[in-house]
């Protein structure tokens, strides 16, 4: 017999293996029992509303610096974010891309400066909505909890901080489920996932590293905005529009979506030759819809030889696109919603040429 292996040793080894098997079996039974328990973890409406508002408010009022990781389908990229708020709730934000070409976005309240260094170009635009991560709610005109149930899930750690975890489950198949991780104390959103069928993650954005409650460095952001004044500037101006006056009607085919705004806006590729910083820019009508948590846009543009289009569908992660032709116009519907919802909105667009006055 091999040295060290006595009958007592063999019996001891069998007992250890039996104990391990018993422990593993107990774990499995415990997990199965926990899964089988019909726990109702749906939050009361008042508590759910309080958490949604806390998450949204934290994005605007907390000082935080961190690294964001975006994943859309198989595409991933990272950005560095700095955000500061003062005593009267002015916001200052800097977002820098860490992959691909250098890009920088500087924001003071609702004025956004997008810097394109290789072209020495600054694109200035007013930001209509404040729903970009880590902010959450697209509008206060629709009650999210009329169309989603909010459930509380077991807490987890994200980016080194303890988080409360929530699931927003839609009442219908016209929108995706959303999962949220919020830092326990401040409510700052640490991770957000858009979920498709079977809980598949279609899209997510998360902090991989974050510091909350840091001292404000808003002066650096203001200095960066000032120092870019010597670059070429192009100001994006969105003009209010009334699509009905131009012969368009769009019925809302999906319950819970509301029309947020109608604008005429420039769209296209901005370049920075000295004589023509606008580049290949054209104007389109845009109608924005939202259910309070997610949204979609309908773009209407005239058919043009300069811009080749064709009817079809496309998707990337949670984002779906439908293009169809109506009379001498291209209709493009883009939204972070299921394909059927985008198709319904595209089919709801109708055109009757306005009568000449």
TrEMBL record:
Occurrences of domain MucB/RseB N-terminal (ranges): 47-221
Domain MucB/RseB C-terminal: 244-350
Domain of life: Bacteria
Keywords linked to the UniProt accession: Periplasm, Signal
Subcellular location: Periplasm
Signal peptide: 1-36
CDD domains: RseB
Major place of residence: periplasm
One protein family per Pfam: MucB_RseB
Sequence similarity: Belongs to the RseB family.
Protein name listed in UniProt: MucB/RseB C-terminal domain-containing protein
Organism: Cupriavidus basilensis
